[in-house]
Design goal:
- By secondary structure, the protein is α/β, with parallel strands linked by helices.
- It is about 35% helix and about 15% strand.
- The strands form two sheets. An eight-stranded parallel beta sheet has the order 1-4-5-6-7-8-9-10.
- Helix 6 packs parallel to helix 7.
- It is globular.
- This is Amidohydrolase-related domain-containing protein.
- Belongs to the metallo-dependent hydrolases superfamily.
């Protein structure tokens, strides 16, 4: 499943001096894979200049007991410990988990305020926001790769929005996991809460799996149009990454041979460049989505591909894409 996870570490590092804040990664223990602090550190030390990272919830290390509503706080405790390790300097200039995006079910009602306050108490220097996956698709194919099935219309749900309104007053953002056809729902949410920063995870996930060339072209156009419409909301930011996920239909997850950065870049470039053109470099940030994207590429080729795609950008534009936007959005000092 994660056969590309360690591939390509012998590739020459492109632009090794560029500081990178990896805006999206996970740490967890699953039956199929163990990926914890040391595993991520080994990828970081492979050569790219990862100066900090943002931990994003993966339903890991939840508390085994206590009120169910507060059990996800266990993951924030875990990530904060990893963040303290990274901040210690013992592992070099890599502030792993400098920002934390935790999980909460925003539909839980009045208790959400207490939950968010406890999360801020646990990780006052790192807790930055919430992600609650809303990925819903009319076809069954995507669900083969999803651990859960979020309800349809979550972003429009009144109970969800009642919880959502508690984010802005605490300075917290919302990471949105969704598919491209749900972007209009996210736009409606952004309009309803203009003071809350909303981050589109995985570049809006244009679902092209199991489609022919014409079908993929149609999906690209749908995705591009939806991204253009939502980008007019100034409180929405785009996270560029997640291209190793099978939902895109790129097929790299089915390759047995190591995938190099040029192969990745040739397929990812239309999506990366379109997203940057739409949102601009100051509302776009690069992310590895590791280890999940290890299905399709190694950590070194992944970052090489991003650098290769934007090789014609100015130094200032690269600074924004690789660390500036993430530093501002997640309030990380580098």
């Amino acid at each position: 499943m994660f056969k590309q996870l360690h591939a390509g570490r012998d590739e020459t590092i492109l632009d090794p001096e560029i500081p990178i804040i990896d805006a999206h990664h996970h740490l967890f223990m699953r039956p199929a894979i163990r990926y914890l602090f040391d595993d991520y550190l080994a990828d970081v030390r492979a050569g790219h200049n990862i100066v900090a990272s943002v931990y994003v919830e993966a339903n890991s290390f939840v508390r085994p007991d206590g009120p169910e509503v507060f059990r996800p706080l266990g993951e924030i405790e875990f990530a904060n410990g990893a963040g303290a390790m990274g901040a210690s300097g013992v592992f070099g200039n890599h502030r792993i988990c400098a920002g934390i995006v935790g999980y909460a079910d925003l539909r839980i009602g009045a208790q959400i305020g207490d939950y968010l306050d406890r999360a801020l108490q646990i990780a006052p220097d790192r807790f930055r926001g919430i992600r609650q996956g809303a990925n819903h698709h009319p076809n069954e194919a995507p669900y083969r790769f999803m651990p859960s099935r979020p309800p349809r219309g979550l972003l429009l749900d009144s109970d969800f929005r009642a919880g959502f309104r508690h984010l802005a007053s605490r300075g917290l953002s919302f990471d949105a996991g969704l598919f491209h056809h749900q972007l209009p729902e996210l736009a409606d949410l952004a309009d309803a809460f203009p003071d809350t920063t909303i981050i589109i995870d995985h570049c809006g996930l244009a679902v092209g799996m199991e489609l022919d060339a014409d079908g993929r072209k149609r999906v690209f156009q749908e995705w591009r149009d939806a991204m253009q419409k939502i980008a007019v909301r100034p409180n929405v930011v785009c996270k560029i990454g997640g291209f190793g996920l099978p939902f895109w239909g790129f097929g790299f997850d089915g390759r047995a041979d190591p995938v190099g950065y040029e192969d990745l870049a040739s397929v990812w470039a239309p999506y990366v460049m379109t997203a940057i053109e739409i949102f601009g470099v100051n509302r776009s940030m690069m992310a590895s989505d590791y280890p999940i994207d290890g299905r399709s590429s190694g950590f070194v080729p992944l970052w090489n591909a991003f650098k290769h795609i934007v090789r014609s950008a100015t130094a200032a534009e690269k600074d924004a894409l690789f660390h500036g936007t993430a530093a501002r959005t997640y309030r990380i000092s580098v």
